Automatic annotation (TrEMBL):
MF term (GO), any: zinc ion binding
Keyword Protein biosynthesis: no
CDD domains in UniProt: D-Ala-D-Ala_dipeptidase_Aad
Active site: 207
Domain of life: Bacteria
Species name: Erythrobacter dokdonensis DSW-74
PANTHER family found in the cross-reference section: D-ALANYL-D-ALANINE DIPEPTIDASE
Pfam families in the cross-refs: Peptidase_M15 (PF01427)
Keyword terms, alphabetized: Cell wall biogenesis/degradation, Dipeptidase, Hydrolase, Metal-binding, Metalloprotease, Protease, Zinc
UniProt key word Plastid: no
Residues marked Transition state stabilizer (site): 115
Name of the protein: D-alanyl-D-alanine dipeptidase
InterPro entries per the UniProt record, alphabetical: A_A_dipeptidase, TAT_signal, Zn_M74/Hedgehog-like
Top-level taxonomy: Bacteria, Pseudomonadati, Pseudomonadota, Alphaproteobacteria, Sphingomonadales
Amino acid sequence: MIADRLQTALPLTRRAVLRGIGAGVVAGMTGGCAARLAMPVDPAASAVPDLVDLARFDPRLRFDIRYARTDNFMGRVLYPVARAVAQRPVAEALSRVQTRAEAAGYGLLIFDAYRPWRVTKMMWEETPPNKREFVADPRGGSRHNRGCSIDLSLHRDGVEVAMPSPYDDFTPAAYRSFAYAPAEALAASRMLEGWMVAEGFVPLANEWWHYDWAEWRRYPIMDVPLEDVTAG
Ligand SMILES: [Zn+2]
């Protein structure tokens, strides 16, 4: 009861969610069915994975891999290497978006791309049920697990552009429909969206930073650790 009331009363900042309230959720789930979850296999995914290292593929791209550090919503290191990899057609499209952004005086700032399934599972298990719209259910897998999603923002001369909310903000400010952010932030988000959509990405409604490659269904859910991906 007390825990329930606390959960409603506390402001749901990322740290409160995952350091405080989240800890109880994890403890509650240990030993439950979530602990025995196996990686899902999508029988319709027939494409052969062809992951490429985005930094090598297009040196113009910039990176801020928060999951390789502790300043992320989980508050701990999730990736042993600061690396972003994606399926080749995704990388090619992203490169074209970079060209569009450069023409307008901007550049792309990548937060995350391929994410091993085990990391998605960890995120789900440690996120309270009322905040799980922001994390993928490991039973279905994430499009990040297929190397087909990109979390990104814009920079201008190396300085991150202000967006409607911080990355991985678990509040309605992350929604694309959120209208109360500063006008410049909303404009920047929509500008990025326009370029991404023009190159074949589909924006996620409740996270301004997340885009899926339109053909994500063709690629299988993967659990290869990031450090083991031998990307071309
Ligand atoms: Zn994402």
